[in-house]
Design goal:
Elements lengths: L1 E7 L4 H9 L4 E11 L4 E8 L4 H11 L1 H4 L1 E6 L6 H9 L10 H11 L4 H20 L2 H10 L3 H13 L2 H31 L23 H19 L3 H10 L2 H14 L2 H48 L7
Antiparallel strand pairs: 1-3, 1-4, 2-3
Helix pairs in contact: 1-2, 5-8, 6-7, 6-9, 6-12, 7-11, 8-9, 8-13, 9-12, 10-11, 10-13, 12-13
């Protein structure tokens, strides 16, 4: 279940309440007339089944609440209520599979921003990967994958492509375009510093790092893993399965590949640079393709449900469906 907190202008209050009370997936509706200040208006509280949340939110946004008032959405961890259980049963589908598009948009919009923290984590993750490459440590490579924040802008671009939001797409691509070069330079400078200090190997070769050479050797499995990770990542993001996202981050070699570019550049190994660059671009491209395809299928299903929902009042008026 999700909890809605609505700030409603007085003139929209009747239509808002009618919208909520007409939906079988909504329960626990509370109305406080005149309770809101800045803006002045009514306060309306309600709980909605996760499966129908985006449909109800779409109805509320069409009323103008987003412009004239406010719509706040929060998760409900525990609901001990027979009415809540009936509301969940009235909504089609499973709560575990439900996509609340407004929450997806909010999460991706925030994580797609080019910020100091994003650039810092990109640089730190890639430097960890560089140390992992120099010491042939798979543990450090995995750690670098988890620390890396690059999936946020990738997810932001996928959402932007599906919802046709060019501003979000530009922000996401800007973050990636700024983050990866900075991260590569950070790995390069760290490697040069370690070489000057005598703490790095004399040469970079398959013999010196047998367990991490896969980073610069893209193949068919790289494509397969990138596609599977893109699908899993979008499902994790859209269905709020944050635990699965950790597995996604560990599956792809974007951050290690960026680190390897910096390390190989410091050694002047241009063949290694080319292989790592191909690995990086391949992962980014196929994660995006798979992510857009996954979200596109989910979005088309939602749009069909919303169209069916919008036709429901007309069918009821004609007597095709009994009242709820």
């Amino acid at each position: 279940m999700l909890h809605l907190r609505l700030v409603v202008p007085p003139e929209l209050a009747p239509r808002t309440l009618d919208t909520l009370t007409a939906a079988a997936a909504v329960c626990n509706i509370v109305h406080f007339p005149g309770a809101s200040r800045q803006p002045d208006g009514d306060l309306v509280l309600a709980d909605v089944a996760r499966e129908d949340a985006s449909i109800i939110l779409s109805d509320l946004r069409r009323l103008g609440l987003e412009r004239e008032g406010a719509v706040m959405v929060s998760e409900i961890d525990t609901a001990l209520s027979d009415r809540a259980r009936r509301a969940e049963k009235a909504a089609s589908g499973s709560p575990a599979d439900a996509v609340v598009w407004e929450m997806v948009e909010s999460r991706t919009s925030e994580s797609a921003e080019l910020s100091f923290s994003f650039l810092s984590f990109m640089a730190l993750a890639t430097m960890i990967a560089a140390v992992g490459i120099l010491t042939d440590s798979q543990i450090l490579i995995i750690g670098a994958m988890i620390v890396g924040p690059e999936f946020g802008p990738l997810a932001g671009f996928c959402v932007a492509a599906v919802e046709r939001r060019p501003s979000l797409a530009r922000r996401s691509l800007t973050a990636l375009a700024a983050g990866f070069p900075l991260a590569i330079v950070a790995a390069l400078l760290l490697t040069l510093a370690l070489r000057l200090a005598g703490q790095a190997p004399d040469e970079l070769s398959a013999v010196s790092r047998p367990t991490t050479t896969f980073i610069s050797e893209p193949n068919a499995y790289s494509v397969l893993v990138a596609v599977l990770a893109g699908v899993a990542g979008m499902l994790s993001l859209s269905t709020a399965k944050s635990g699965a996202l950790i597995g996604v981050l560990v599956s792809v070699t974007t951050i290690p590949a960026a680190g390897n570019i910096g390390v190989a550049t410091a050694y002047g190994d241009w063949g290694e640079v080319g292989g790592a660059t191909a690995q990086l671009l391949l992962n980014l491209a196929f994660i995006m393709v798979a992510g857009v395809a996954t979200l596109g299928l989910q979005r088309s299903r939602f749009l069909r449900r919303r169209r069916a929902h919008s036709r429901l009042p007309a069918r009821r008026a004609e007597g095709a469906d009994p009242p709820p």
